Every structure is written in structure tokens, then in C-alpha cells.
């Protein structure tokens, strides 16, 4: 039986890694994927393991194994070195005593195989199929976003939600921001399910919650690391309490899909426009108070957006740019603490 293994840090797991594992499957009956995580790394080991498991959830021949080690005992480097390869080969021999194949895309793969007395099958050593590495991704996430599998994208996507009562410009601003940042957008599901804010039932709110979460999940694995979302589950919860005095029973998965990195709340100081399907202005303003109470109830912090349409756009752009800058600095700071993998 041909039992192979693949090993790596997967920080993050990318399509080159995925292709290598699929290549290994084409040469082996079973493939063990060893996720190597040192005691000094800050990217959670369980997250990396989940990325691989989720990508191969339909492949029973793949077994993902988490291996956590201390850098005082095992070297943390990707350099091709006979001494380093010997140390790791000894550890691999303990972990995989019955495996007879190792698949890598690095020169040290041959050394590891020799020390273990097994076969090395190289994969895309020149990185011509997928010209990417975890190091390049950490250095420039937006430019390498397309090289990430869906599950990894869903973990790393930055979500910005626009909140507010009716007729505060959420939908228009969502589209304008998506065009400005050349990113994905999720439009409000409620407007497609309920035609008139004066005529809906509690069942409609559950439909809205489910559909809106589906749209977010779908767009979270798109072509951009930034996603602008028009309204979210907390507004749906607010409608439930405001209109029916009911606390909706929302599935945890829906709440997780709606979880965002930045909440922008549009003040109701904008000109009110009644299109025939909206609440009257006085009731609209009462709904605004309900929304704010719900956000406070669930501990959701937000930045308030005021002024005319252009002022709202400018404020939102500034806040999103600041958010993206912070996230990039944090990502680069994290990357800077890592050795190349």
C-alpha cells in the first residue's frame, strides 16, 4: 500500500498547497497532511488544521494531523540543510513509521526522504503552476487573494456593515463604497422578500435572516478581501422586537455569517424620502431608537455616519481605509515574526 505524507505550516493554506496534496493523492492510496505549528507562532494551530480539513472534507483518503512542537527542540526553518532535514526526518519517522512516500515542492524533500529511507515525489519545484507562497501572501494579502481556497477566504475576509433605519442611504452607500474599493457587496435581502415595510409577518423575518446570511457567505469567498454589507441580522432582530415584541430564535451559524469587523451606523439626519413602501417618518425614527437599543443589547459597537450623501461617503471611506490599514499592519507585524515557510 502506498502511504504518503505532506507537511507544512500552512500560514496561510493556499491553492499551491491544495494542488500538492491532490498531486500526492494521485500517487498514493492515502495521504496524511501534517500541520506543523511551533510554540512561537501566533496564527492558531486549530485554524490552520480546519483550513485543510474543510478543503478536503469530501476526500476520505486524506487525514489531517496537527503537530505542535517546541522550537527549542526542533528547528523552525525552510532552508535546505542536511542537519535540519535529519532532525525532522527522525521526527517524521516516529510520526509515520509505516509511510513510504513523502511529497514536497522543496529541495529538502529529497534529503528528508533519504534519511527516512522512503521515496520522495517532487511537485512543481519551480512553482510554475501556482506562483505563490505563504510568505508572498503574508506580505501582500490583497494581491494574492485569488490564491486562497474558499475556506481560507471566509476566515480572512474583512466585513463592513452599514446599519441604520429606513431612508438613511444604506443601499446607495453600499453600492458607492463597493465601486470605490472595487470590492464585493451584499445588498439587503429584506427589500427582495418584503415589498412594503408596513406589511410583513414574523415568518418573513426568518426568511430574511436566512437569505441574507446565504448572500454574505457567498460573497465572502469572492475576488476581494473586502466586503461591504447593506444591513445585517441585528436590524432583523430589531424589526422582530419593534413590530412583534418577539425575540427571534436565530441559528448560531447565521450570527457567525453576519459577524463583521466594522459597523457603520447611518444617522437619520438625512432627508427622508417616502417611496410608498416605507414607514412614515415618525415611525421610522422610532425604529431608529429600536435599532440602537438592539445593538447595545448585543454589545455591537459602531461608528456613526452623519451629514449629506457626500459627507457620509467620505466619512465611510476614511473609516474603512483606517480599518484596512490597521489590519494590514497587524498582518505584516504577524508575518514579520515568522520565518519564511
UniProtKB/TrEMBL annotation:
Residues 159-312 form the NadR/Ttd14 AAA domain. It comes from the Bacteria. One of its GO terms (molecular function) is catalytic activity. Pfam families: AAA_28 (PF13521), CTP_transf_like (PF01467). InterPro entries: Cyt_trans-like, NAD_biosynth-regulator, NadR/Ttd14_AAA_dom, P-loop_NTPase, Rossmann-like_a/b/a_fold. Signal peptide: none annotated. Residues 6-139 form the Cytidyltransferase-like domain. SUPFAM superfamilies: Nucleotidylyl transferase (SSF52374), P-loop containing nucleoside triphosphate hydrolases (SSF52540). This is HTH-type transcriptional regulator, transcriptional repressor of NAD biosynthesis genes. The lineage of its organism: Bacteria, Pseudomonadati, Bacteroidota, Chitinophagia, Chitinophagales.
